[in-house]
Amino acid sequence: MSDLNAAERRETVPVSLGDRSYDIHIGEGLLARAGEVVAPFLKRPLTAIVTDQNVAAAHLATLERALAAKGIRSTAIVMPPGEKTKSYQHLAELCDKLLAAGIERRDRIIAFGGGVIGDLAGFAAAILRRGVDFIQIPTTLLSQVDSSVGGKTGINSPYGKNLIGAFHQPLAVITDIALLDTLPKRELAAGYAEVAKYGLLGDADFFEWLEGAAPAIMRGDSQARIHAIRKSCEAKAQIVAEDEHETGVRALLNLGHTFGHALESATGYSQRLLHGEGVSIGMVQAFRFSERQKLCPPGTADRVARHLKSVGLPIHASQIPGELPPPATLVEIMRQDKKAQGGKLTFILARDIGEAFIARDVNEHDVLNFLTEDLRQR
Ligand SMILES: NC(=O)c1ccc[n+]([C@@H]2O[C@H](COP(=O)([O-])OP(=O)(O)OC[C@H]3O[C@@H](n4cnc5c(N)ncnc54)[C@H](O)[C@@H]3O)[C@@H](O)[C@H]2O)c1
Ligand SMILES: O=C(O)C(=O)C[C@@H](O)[C@H](O)[C@H](O)COP(=O)(O)O
Ligand SMILES: [Zn+2]
After folding, report:
1. Which domains does the chain carry?
2. Mutate which of 49, 187, 192, 236 to test ligand 1's pocket (most atoms within 8 Å of Cβ)?
């Protein structure tokens, strides 16, 4: 057992993908020992850390020290925080900085931040010199339970969310729950939406556990956080192992996202609506739409909404500040969704809590009528 294995409250979740398999290391205080995980992957003692200004201010020095303790020199590339950084412009800037830092094909990049940094740095790694390997050190709840796992990387386009990207798996994921202590409460809640998603899409027992444990997770109880993160990572790892490139079952991880991404796009990827908040509203909409289509028992969407509201998440589009475009525009945006086939919309709908399914060829008029009614309410 390595020193790291012996660390208190440390768990490992494997992601089984043949020669691209990797481990997710979950624990408290792992950042200070990150060099132990990173060093064996390096061909020479040099790396680039991609991060954002907020993460750099709070945690970069700890990571740099942890790498230096293993003799690793690092160059930090600090990007602006926020969803707007997932852009062509910032991708180009990042790639040039990685080249300027002398990152070679066999070097490794470290993505140190939330989902924005993971998606951007992961995509830069996928295309730099036709592919450089990278390691994820996620710093938000959202990135610890979702975006650091599974290899989806990319940026947004004026046409929609994540429309430019690549599948590029990390070599390892290092998840330190202590990093969540500096995360703003709004961001913590946004990440919680993706935790709840795993219960809602395929594990009613986990959702029931969350209904009781949410206050502990939100106030920082280590055991509750580690359990929630481990369960989430296990659920995602299993789905990704089955369907890495989303030809089938992986689409379930998109529960709430067709609605949510349209809202994110319509609000200009701004602070008006965080990704997890869009997912929260979108999951409630997915359950309400399922009820309306008589797929799901009445009252299910209310139960989902009650739970998400209890952690401070928005559950209805009317809670988004400012004007929204009309429903027809939202449907127009949804046509760019990557799950669409032959111009027909695909949604993740549900028969009950924990029983999501992929609904292809959803009637656009049904969606439009639903949105028109839903947006009028409250
Ligand atoms: N690739 C995937 O599978 C996948 C999955 C889910 C979401 N995503 C993407 O992830 C993005 C959202 O990620 P996010 O919610 O992590 O947002 P984010 O990366 O923007 O981080 C949220 C905010 O918290 C700050 N921050 C991060 N860690 C911090 C810390 N420890 N202490 C203090 N501040 C900290 C950041 O600077 C930022 O301001 C979206 O672009 C979404 O599309 C991708
Ligand atoms: O990993 C996946 O697969 C997901 O769908 C996870 C989502 O939470 C995440 O937001 C993802 O980036 C959405 O992917 P997209 O293909 O709909 O852009
Ligand atoms: Zn998501």
Report:
1. 3-182 (3.40.50.1970), 185-376 (1.20.1090.10)
2. 187
